[in-house]
Design goal:
binds zinc ion; alpha/beta; 7-stranded mixed β-sheet; single chain; Metallo-beta-lactamase, Chain A; globular; 28% helix; 283 residues
Length: 283
């Protein structure tokens, strides 16, 4: 029996597993891309994934980091790579050191400090690009970008051997292209993300919306989270094909949030939305 019963969504052949309730736990895994956004309490299902992209150090997003890293070693897997904001590196090191002492063996880890604008290679043709969010002072979001080469128009229609010949002559027959696949905002206050090209044009956007009722505007500001009043107009300006909503608080059920968004959004935008925790029957 796995430790968690995770939500499961498939979009265009991409699988997304996760659990997300504001203040409780957030972990979102994309196994085919070998990436886990935040780590929550380290569900068993995410241990084999080699990259954790941590948006900030709050306990609902980062509590399981030592277990994740230690359990990979226990299972004979390579040390996990954790991309994480600079201010979290030292505290995570101390946590790993403490658990290492309690457990009687050092916990192997590759901790990589990341800041907005940085790019990290996840696997051939796939990079994680870092963008700023507004939550803790150095909180970040991540955009996974596929980098490919596309044959230049003028060489279309040539046969394979003809293209090989051109290449041999040193002719550059293709141009590099970048396809933003998925952007993950983590926890964030309102920011006009439609101004960040990678985020606005990602095929999939994974976004938090924590607060929905009118009385909670102040709470959203104080906790630096998104409120539906700002979230809904923002979604209308984004070009994403699919939008996955995470981090609802326990105060709002998926059913209530859906109703409110259906009212606040155009039909076309509402159709793009999936709630990660839909049909999860939270107790
Ligand atoms: Zn959170
Ligand atoms: Zn947080």
């Amino acid at each position: 029996m796995p430790s968690h019963n995770l939500a499961h969504i498939t979009i265009d052949d991409l699988e997304i597993y996760g659990y997300s309730v504001g203040g409780e736990e957030t972990v979102i895994a994309m196994p085919q891309l070998d990436v886990c956004f935040d780590i929550g309490k380290a569900p068993d299902q995410v241990i084999p994934i080699s990259h954790v992209l941590l948006t900030h150090g709050h306990i609902d997003h980062a509590a399981g980091i030592a277990y994740y890293l230690s359990h990979r070693a226990f299972c004979g897997q390579s040390p996990g790579t954790v991309l994480t904001p600079p201010s979290t590196i030292e505290p995570i090191r101390q946590i790993l050191e403490g658990w290492g002492r309690l457990d009687g063996s050092r916990i192997p880890a590759k901790l990589v400090p990341v800041s907005p604008g940085d790019e990290f290679s996840i696997k051939p043709n796939l990079v994680a690009r870092v963008f700023p969010t507004k939550h803790t002072p150095d909180a970040v979001g991540f955009c996974l970008i596929e980098k490919r080469k596309k044959l230049k128009d003028r060489y279309r229609g040539l046969t394979g051997p003809e293209l090989v010949d051109l290449k041999k002559q040193g002719v550059i027959i293709d141009t590099p292209i970048q396809i933003p696949l998925v952007s993950y905002l983590g926890d964030t206050h309102y920011v006009d993300y439609s101004r960040l090209d990678d985020v606005a044009n990602s095929r999939i956007l994974i976004a938090e919306c924590t607060f929905f009722s009118d009385e909670h505007v102040g709470r959203a500001d104080a906790g630096r989270h998104m409120h539906i009043d700002e979230f809904a107009p923002l979604l209308e300006r984004m070009n994403n094909k699919h939008i996955i909503i995470t981090h609802l608080s326990r105060r709002t059920s998926v059913g209530q949030a859906k109703k409110m968004l259906r009212k606040a959004l155009s039909e076309a935008t509402f159709k793009k939305i999936t709630f990660l925790m839909d049909r999860c029957n939270l107790q």
